[in-house]
Amino acid sequence: xxxxxxYATLGFRHIADLGALDHILFLVALAAIYRLRDWRxxxxxxxxFTVGHSxxxxxxxxxxxxxxxxxxxxxxxxxIVVTGIENMIVRDRRRAPWRGRYRPVxxxxxxxxxxxxxxxxxxxxxVDQIALPLLGFNVGIELGQIAVLTVVSITxxxxxxxxxxxxxxxxxxxxxRLRVVAVSSLVTVVAFGxxxxxxxx
Length: 201
Fold this sequence. Notes:
Elements: H1 3-16, H2 21-31, H3 39-61, H4 69-89, H5 103-122, H6 131-166, H7 175-198
Helix pairs in contact: 1-6, 2-4, 2-6, 2-7, 3-5, 4-5, 4-7, 6-7
């Protein structure tokens, strides 16, 4: 197996492994508001997240940027909490500031934090070369994200259909809104617990 393939496999396993549950939960929080018809909006957000974590991953692995591990481990669940709360607060994205187009901006900013988290895992594995392992790991991360988001999307569609069947009448919220609030509440509570556990003070 080539160096590129080795690190691509490591990247894929890292994002798809339950040990990276905080990163998976952030992807769930990002995806929670979208339906299949919103794929363009979701693509912009995921792309911004990818750009953000790719930049910080490269800077941190090459030691251009060094951030305390304890701070990064604390900030990662904070990104989930903020995303979950934003999901619940904003009911109509057409009436939100900039018609909700700020989401790619904060996804990119939060990607910077997650990239530093990936770097902490990857940095110790480099020996001589950096470029090829870094590229391979990043490609693996992206493939892992696609796999995770595919599973999440299928699950969310199934959840919507289940809510529609169970509550055809008497629902205060639409099935989609109910799903957004339920999923976002769950990830926010879990991430808040992690943030308390990882607080650096």
